Amino acid sequence: MIAADLIQYLTVFVLAILLGFEVISKVPATLHTPLMSGTNSIHGIVLVGAIGVAAIADNPLSYLIAFVAMAFAGANVVGGYVVTDRMLQMFRRRPVPATDKFAK
Predict the structure, then answer these.
(1) Cβ-based neighbours of 57, under 8 Å, separated by 6 or more
(2) Where are the domains of the chain?
(3) Fewer CB atoms near the end CB (10 Å): N or C, the chain?
(4) pLDDT per residue over 70-95, tens digit each?
(5) What distance in Å separates the CA atoms of residue 45 and residue 62, rounded to the nearest whole number?
(6) Are 62 and 53 in contact (CB under 8 A)?
């Protein structure tokens, strides 16, 4: 019974990876920033879910899995915001250098 459930969960996981790769590879470059913002919110939900799993963990393996899930989700949230911020900086106007009026 457990092996059949594991096979089913792994199948769904692999299909989700393939579907996600197909969807992301078709996104034009102009939509990457909004997509990253949406991804950050999804990873925030994953982080809350991992915290919920940690709250009901009752053995060391469950604690370890919950910790790894929280670490990966936290890294994705922080990394996503860093990437989004860097992408948004590309669209900001650069300050015009001041010219010296008295220079010849």
Answers:
(1) 63, 65, 66
(2) 2-89
(3) C
(4) 998 888 888 878 877 887 787 778 77
(5) 19
(6) yes
Per-residue HEC secondary structure of the chain comes to CHHHHHHHHHHHHHHHHHHHHHHHHCCCHHHHHHHHHHHHHHHHHHHHHHHHHHHHCCCHHHHHHHHHHHHHHHHHHHHHHHHHHHHHHCCCCCCCCCCCCCCC
Residue 15, pLDDT above cutoff 90: yes
Please state the pTM of the whole predicted model: 0.56
Q: Quote the tokens at residue 68.
A: 């790894």
Tell me the torsion sign for CA atoms 52, 54, 57, 62: positive
Digit-coded pLDDT (tens) for 25-44 = 887 777 766 776 677 777 78
